Sequence to fold (1352 residues):
Amino acid sequence: MIYEVTIYEVTTGEETREVELVRAGAGWRCKLDGKELPLDAVFPQPGLLSILVDGASLEVREEISAGQSVIVVGGERFTASVRDPRSYRSRRTREAGGQGVRKIVAPMPGKVVRVLAKVGAAVDAGQPVLVIEAMKMQNELKAPKKGKVSKLNVSEGAAVEAGQVLAEVE
Amino acid sequence: MIYEVTIYEVTTGEETREVELVRAGAGWRCKLDGKELPLDAVFPQPGLLSILVDGASLEVREEISAGQSVIVVGGERFTASVRDPRSYRSRRTREAGGQGVRKIVAPMPGKVVRVLAKVGAAVDAGQPVLVIEAMKMQNELKAPKKGKVSKLNVSEGAAVEAGQVLAEVE
Amino acid sequence: MFKKVLIANRGEIAVRVIRACRELSIASVAVFSDVDRAALHVTQADEAYPIGPAAARESYLNVSRILEAARRSGADAIHPGYGFLSENADFARACSEAGIKFIGPPASAMELMGSKTRARQAMQAAGVPMVPGSAKGLSLPETEVLAATIAYPVMIKAAAGGGGKGMRLVRAAAELRSAFETAQSEALRAFNSQEVYLEKFIDCPRHIEIQVLGDEHGNMVYLGERECSVQRRHQKVIEEAPSAVVDEDLRRRMGEVAVQAARSAGYTNAGTVEFLVDQKFNFYFLEMNTRLQVEHPVTELVTGLDLVHLQLRIASGEKLPLRQADVVLRGHALECRIYAEDPENNFFPSPGKITRLLRPSGPGVREDSGVYEGWTVPLDYDPLLSKLIVYAPDRPAAVARMRRALDEYFVAGIKTNLALFRRILEHPDFAAARIDTGFLDRLPASSRPPQGPAGLSEIAAVSAALFAASGAPLANGRPARRREDHGNGKTSAWQRAARREGTERQ
Amino acid sequence: MFKKVLIANRGEIAVRVIRACRELSIASVAVFSDVDRAALHVTQADEAYPIGPAAARESYLNVSRILEAARRSGADAIHPGYGFLSENADFARACSEAGIKFIGPPASAMELMGSKTRARQAMQAAGVPMVPGSAKGLSLPETEVLAATIAYPVMIKAAAGGGGKGMRLVRAAAELRSAFETAQSEALRAFNSQEVYLEKFIDCPRHIEIQVLGDEHGNMVYLGERECSVQRRHQKVIEEAPSAVVDEDLRRRMGEVAVQAARSAGYTNAGTVEFLVDQKFNFYFLEMNTRLQVEHPVTELVTGLDLVHLQLRIASGEKLPLRQADVVLRGHALECRIYAEDPENNFFPSPGKITRLLRPSGPGVREDSGVYEGWTVPLDYDPLLSKLIVYAPDRPAAVARMRRALDEYFVAGIKTNLALFRRILEHPDFAAARIDTGFLDRLPASSRPPQGPAGLSEIAAVSAALFAASGAPLANGRPARRREDHGNGKTSAWQRAARREGTERQ
Fold:
């Protein structure tokens, strides 16, 4: 029998671990940071994983939305980032929170209904900078830090995409 | 815009019809036995079809089991057989009920627990010939016609597959 | 209350009990056979342990493997569900010997009620009305004599039986011998005992049963009746509560007899006393089921109670939280048992993979299911997939609601009896509650051609073409591919079947 | 009874009404905007007609298109659901002028209750207890004066408003001007009227409302209360019946005031009188909603009634089938409103495609949903996806059951507020029913790190790798592919958005 071994670098929350998987028949053999983890894993349905590990039955779900993977298990939610050695791009994942400059990003598609600060204006952390509206809700976008508005990429009435950078504070 | 026209020969129950489909943008243009049928069809989910035809909203479902397609619409069930001009094999579909010889077929996987007639025995239509068992139920397989048992392919204790010919009556 | 409960069962009832445990903050332990690793009850439980091969007698009927799992998990109680070991007194005893609470009645009560003949004797002594017949197992000659005296038609029944196994109706002396022998062989296969007995056959009876509930402090109540007259081969197909023919007075009389019967057997926890009711509304003791019934949800919906919660609380020593006066029936509930079987083909079982599953929901709809889309229903066990239950303010509204819910229900990949329920619910006799245990057998088969508007078959034809064009798998008219799919899907199951001595009782 | 009913709505409530029609053998007619062709209410109805572009004001608020569909289909009645045109008296009038029965109260009652200021005057006249404040629309200067007299904190509210739009709390004079202006602009955008008025702010009030139901023959009953104190930005999030703090006496007093208020407005059909209840259990009239409420199911579960069936029967001229004495509350019901929004990100809406949807079921669980797996939730309407409702014998059991049901619920592809409900239901104050309209705003955000057993994060890591290895799409760590998916999924929606003047009220 031939074993195909794959090693993944997995980051959940703060921790990054090395997961080694070996297909063994219908199932898997698995090592976590080098030490064997005796578990029985099956996929009953897409997005659903059933794991038995010394008696405990764990139903694991993978929520994917807005391009982010969240692993839900035992009532807890873990934002997961998997680095497959065979795809290297993935190093550059979420460098959202830079040091000097902080971006204000549209969290969903919608429309800018008000701009509350001009470029160059001094703002406190948490002070509203823009208001965008979707699904009949108006939502204030606040300054992520104390500083001044260094960039303003949209004006009132503009339609924006989720993930679009609307303004920057430095 | 390029139209791809496909013509199907569809048999539901007794009737066989010619259905002509033309992809038109997201939807379809459709002719039934040559005459235009103005309907709006979308597939909300796999196996599910939503048809609007002059106001009426019809939810059509396709049940597939034991290799047979049943179209369910308006509370009625239609056994459907589609002949795509591009696949010719399909002429030979269900010649189960021949004239002279009639077969007794296992309708599900299971086990033969009793054989009630010998080869050559005269049987009435509806007379039990075998008993097979699955899911803790015993089921009698009856003679499809008056005649004599011409063939007996299994004996008690045999495991049988769905669709397997167990006996013949002529 | 218990810390951890092992559920010695599978399918919908295992999931039902697991849900109750979760709601009571009790850890749940599932057990599973080799073919059930991905079953819903395994993925839903807090813990799960393998207990052997597919064959029930090597897994779900395997007392030592189950007790081993209980010990290993540290479970302090076992819920047996229904079927399998639920009415096995030896298992109940083995549990208490292992220091694990069996959630059910005392072994002694199970033994008494477990033998139909001993039960008859005890019930007769307790003054419970009985159908004329033999109170003990009979030989063929004895049967012939007694049948002649109480006059045909008569019923032959397995002494250890249940659910229609080893049961035969005999209308004339000529049929007696072969019926007797079939009954014996079925009884032997199903219950490892070929003992059978004889009963007068009541013509067009209704099957009406009383739910009783008793704690371990001498308190016992009845929770009204369920009518289960819609049966096929003595298997319940549709159940309802309340019964359309039971009034306050009859309910009280049947209820009090049921409680009396249960008390005389030293009964505790949940149980059901089944009666036959003739056309003059005389009722006769049929049997007592010493476990939770498949159809318990209809009682829950009209009483507002949760029977599994109450089972767990009673078994842990709590007092009944209600008195008879607190039991009030409100509205009407119906249950349809959805089986993997083909009503258009003599109800042959239809195991296999569920490729699509859309479930009804909305007002008054409850589903207790043991399956999911993508699950392959094994051929080794009872074909019950799910129970669809509805509640509405009155019976006509409940019937209408059930029809609505059935229209929303969609299963592809395997055959189910869904279409049968539509035919039953459309039938004027069912709407008028003119039902008896023969109703379903008299219902004509559905081989009638579609009745709908002419346009419907045209729409069906176009739809079939659209499914084909859209690339949705259209099995028919593609014999080559079909054969493959088919083979792959089932081969392993057939091989297992070939290696096994047939199937087991559950 | 009606032959054919058009439902002038979309989403779960349209499906709810369609189901009721089916159960009463009434043909149902859906209407849909361009983005809703494949919506559940369209596929479930017997007929369906397009009524215009995505923007609600051009479709679901487009009276002439809707009446045209009604005439074309030959509908003899229209059910407006909630939101959209449900509280629009002109629409109700247009219906009756078109000879189509509007299923709701008379236009006059809608107009009276529709203007908060006129309603206050009428209710005051009818002797209904009121919160101190202005009974009419105010200018900024007037507001400043009155606010000073009744003393801060005060509330500014849109006269035509509802559901928290155009509503602002003002704790000090300094905040008044900006709050006043925001309220006006929101009011204008939402209701096409910038009229606002002022009210004394009651500290830590409970929101408790009474369901009333009246026929067109002068009979009216109250169906107990619902507590809706768990709110975010004055939007209800969890509702329950009965309220843990309402005893028989308070229920009777509130119920009688509610009936009196409804009678004084010449009200018929289903309506809800909302009250604020302070810490001394004084109650003050808030507003009357002249339509079916989102949260009506909790009342159905504890009364055993079907409010939509009753709406249809009353509107068709039938008498109320019950008297006040027949209304009995039993058990406890909870409802969670499941929204397409991200509780971990300030509740921003999260439209998009639902890639996986697993729904809870089993004992005591009801789901009223408007979506299905594979449906793309449009960004044009209210983000309510579904309502999860549970029933149990008492409140603690209902809370436990809701937690169980939430654990079974699984949505992927879009964000939902499911995780929020778990946090609420785990909170000791909610368990103890120590809730008021500020409860949710005080609830700490869930940014806390996972608490579970250490092993859990290891399992999560391994699982992430297994999902990746199994070929299940794992978005993160695959930025290139992610960007694509993302773009394709939404581009068209953005383009539509760009072509529209923002979004519409529903």
Notes: The two ends of chain B are 59 Å apart (CA to CA). Residues 87-99 of chain B have pLDDT under 50 and may be disordered.
